Amino acid sequence: ARDQLETSIRMFFKEDSPVSVHTLAAAAHEVLWDLAKKNNLRSLLKNNPAIKREKRKEFYKMITEAENFFKHADRDPGNILDFSPKATVYFLVDAIEIFQQLNTGLKLPPIMALMKAWFQLENPDMFVHSPQAVQLKAFCDKIGLKALDRTKFLEWEREFIRMQREELVSS
Questions:
Q1: Which of 54, 63, 84, 95 is buried most deeply by CB count within 10 Å?
Q2: Contact 88/63 with Cβ under 8 angstroms?
Q3: pTM of the predicted model as reported, rounded to 2 decimal places
């Protein structure tokens, strides 16, 4: 699952085929989620307590629609899916969170930390500002790196690893 997740993140940053990225990210998420369930861990997508019990089935169907469509085309070959690649980001971030829960004490692999950092930069109003997030934003502003420049994020992976080692960004 780790390899699938890291590969799907790299594909995401390279802006490879959105369908391929989503399929691989969803597969990694599914494996991690299967392991998480056995350990009574949480997933924001699969067992989020904030979703009303009576709405969970509907929510789950909605978030797995693309995954199932891409995996099981034989079920309804004439069907057309209005796919939004934005959903992939949530699978990636949730898979990273599950990975962290399963590997407590292990430093987050750099590509996963980079994805989390990108997600924070892309969605600044969603998060509490930590000193690391402020430092990361200042670094990105200094070099002119914007969240919209996904392909450039991989170019800065080594610098990000250095910052992570020096605990300038969280993992």
A1: 95
A2: no
A3: 0.82
Sequence-ordered list of residues with C-beta below 8 angstroms from that of 42, at least 6 positions apart, any chain: 36, 48, 49, 101
pLDDT digits (tens, 9 = 90+) for 150-159: 888 787 777 7
Exposure of 62 in the CB half-sphere (CA atoms within 13 A): 9
DSSP conformation letters of 124-162: GGGSPPPHHHHHHHHHHHHHT--TT-HHHHGGGHHHHHH
Query: What type of residue sits at position 106?
Result: L
d(CA 8, CA 26): 9
| CA terminus-to-terminus distance, the chain | 19
Tokens 């994805």 found at: 115
Residue-wise pLDDT for 106-122, tens only, equals 888 889 988 988 888 88
In contact, 1 and 25? CB cutoff 8 Å: no
Question: Mutual orientation of helices 131-143 and 110-122 as an angle, nearest 10°?
Answer: 80
| CA-based nearest residue to 115, from 135, 139, 138, 91 | 91
- Please give the Cα distance from 87 to 64 (Å, whole number): 10
